[in-house]
Amino acid sequence: MRNLLTDVPGILVGNAHDAQAATGVTVAVFERSVVASVATLGGAPGDRAVTLLEPEMTRGMIDAVVLSGGSLYGLDAAGGVTAVLCRQGKGAQFGGLTLPVAVQAILFDLTNGGAKEWLTEPVDKRPPYWDLGRDATLAAAQDFALGTVGAGFGATTVTAKGGLGSASTGTRQGFTVGALAAVNAVGSALIGDGPHFWAAPYEQGAEFGGLGWPQKIPPEALAVRFKGQPAPATATTIAMVATDATLTKAECKRLAIMANDGLSKALRPVHAPNDGDTVFAVSTGLAGSGGEPPVLTELGTAAADCLARAVARGVYEATALPYKTAMPDWKTRFGGGRR
Amino acid sequence: MRNLLTDVPGILVGNAHDAQAATGVTVAVFERSVVASVATLGGAPGDRAVTLLEPEMTRGMIDAVVLSGGSLYGLDAAGGVTAVLCRQGKGAQFGGLTLPVAVQAILFDLTNGGAKEWLTEPVDKRPPYWDLGRDATLAAAQDFALGTVGAGFGATTVTAKGGLGSASTGTRQGFTVGALAAVNAVGSALIGDGPHFWAAPYEQGAEFGGLGWPQKIPPEALAVRFKGQPAPATATTIAMVATDATLTKAECKRLAIMANDGLSKALRPVHAPNDGDTVFAVSTGLAGSGGEPPVLTELGTAAADCLARAVARGVYEATALPYKTAMPDWKTRFGGGRR
């Protein structure tokens, strides 16, 4: 077990970033098309090809989940992903054509200090996301890095650098569940000003430092702190969960809704007006039926726990961007500086 | 009055197409950001940045509605649109950045005979849609062509060439309502094998031939005929309606739902599993409050009628693509051939 989304068989993950622009793309690709749905609980989402994921829609299978920076400008990324998948022959074959489906959500990292040339010289300079989507897909593998990589490259939270996180677990029925998150929350993954993570109760081993729960939570740690006060700011945590249990699209929708609870265990505040929090849920269906309500309840709980852990790991593994004003990273502040 | 969407003050429309690929893009741009929502009643939609249009989401204003061919490959178009709007300084100003919002829906025209090089040489040849989105935005004007143009360039219906249509009307409160549709329905805009349009009861003047209702509707005209029997096929009519009445986002959602009824008046079958029928609704808010239920009922009815007329005009104004196997156009079949 890698403690990564890719512990779910049939899933590969790739990252690509543009260091100059301080942004990037993460893509999860599937060996065979998977059943999927989505639950969007943040108030300011940006997405591509997601309506087809609703249970009343016809198309049942997708070939990639794309997470990216760039706010709405980042939505070109799925185009580059789709091109590579088409060349690989992935997706539905239809009238002699290859029609892969790449669904996407974005986060807002436009004000993180990177050089966003497509905003200062629009039209002449194109956003880098189509290329980043292509490159992330070409890089897809079972092993992938966490922290300041891919869609988490330019991500921040209100108190520490954000990043890309992942985690996995098993259920007692023998199913595998994995989660992947690009953590750019309007809120914080940490309790107050201390080093402890809200997700501590769900930590496995010392996957995000092993500090456990603080002895005491001071009242000021419950004060609501978030980006952009008094000026508005945008944020967003985008994520996916996956299982090898066989689920219908409606069951994937339920899984996506329950998995959003993982965000609420790991971030405070979350699902806010300026978050676009979006969670995709995917069933590879390689391990048999998981659709009975008690099994789905276990899968949903595992997915929520896993996603909470992935969020904490995204912050824990992050490295600060190289700007004077950049948000410091957890390890430098609390871990004695690992580098 | 031009009998076009652009009769609603503050809206411009632009078209661009790629004749070789037999596909194109239509964009409606707004002088100032507008309130908008969407109702997606087709079973196989493809879209970009639409979740933010739901009434519970924070972002209230958009700057462009993009309609395009290309199925999911076409979703790059909004990127080119957004780049031009950014250069023009359109949209929200946020932290010194220009953040226009372009929402998009696509239709499926991949099997219409055009040379889709990005499908035969993927990655090396990119889909043309980013460029077409840019060019359509640069072409935006009050006057624009109908028929085999823009998003309607490669469109078909089951019995006749499809195309881009538009229409407008006024309400007795003095509001203007307009509609725009790229008609690529799985079904037909025509009654049986004859020249009459299902939308005939709503026709103004002779805007789609003035033939009125047929004397008699033979039983075989009610037989359900649609593309892709027995093989599956995909289709989709994508549309927008707009009014200068001031509406909230929730009221725009209601307007979009009522406007979908215009599709059902003009097309049979419609909202089918392989249609991705999507209707955007926009309020420019330049003419005062239209949100009281009786007024909104009138606006919704006007929008539905207008959209039915726009659909018929899209088919009526279309010109067949220059392929042997291309779907014939209405005017050649029934109009004595205007050209």
TrEMBL record, chains A, B:
Transmembrane segments: none annotated. Pfam families: Peptidase_S58 (PF03576). GO terms for molecular function: aminopeptidase activity. InterPro entries: ArgJ-like_dom_sf, Peptidase_S58_DmpA. Belongs to the peptidase S58 family. This is Peptidase T4. It comes from Reyranella soli.
